């Protein structure tokens, strides 16, 4: 089966796009009055921590809790802007595949979804990577992804995502706090082996 060449290019959330197209940028822009200067080239989670340090917010403070909720919502909205909401949209799955270096990019929804779901990737970094062009790490197992996510405090707002996200994002949520529930997902699974065979034996870049 033929494969389409990569048709995608990525632009930073700090570009000329309107604020409605850059929810993370819009979130941080609301805090410039305090003297905080957002750096879109850095991971958004790191910038949020810097914002809290700048304002001397402790996790238990109401200001910190409100900001955390708003930031979590901005991440979800940014994912939707970057990749779309429809789990049946081929272009959305192809963009996701390109983000984790799947090559060639599948040209059907079924194959593109299968290929991407065979890879374990942190959704916060995936969202940031589309916006700032930074490489996205992938992991052989959900267990490794879980350790990395927890060690670096990169937990995607899963509960809020189920309430507010589109169908595409809901398909990608993993059990980071209990990775054994996702034991069949990842590169060691039969899903990955089938996807790998369809890609001519190639694997997503680590």
UniProtKB/TrEMBL annotation:
Bias-annotated ranges (Low complexity): 1-16
Comp. bias intervals (Basic residues): 190-206
Region listing for Disordered, in residue ranges: 1-21, 183-206
Protein name stated in the entry: Uncharacterized protein
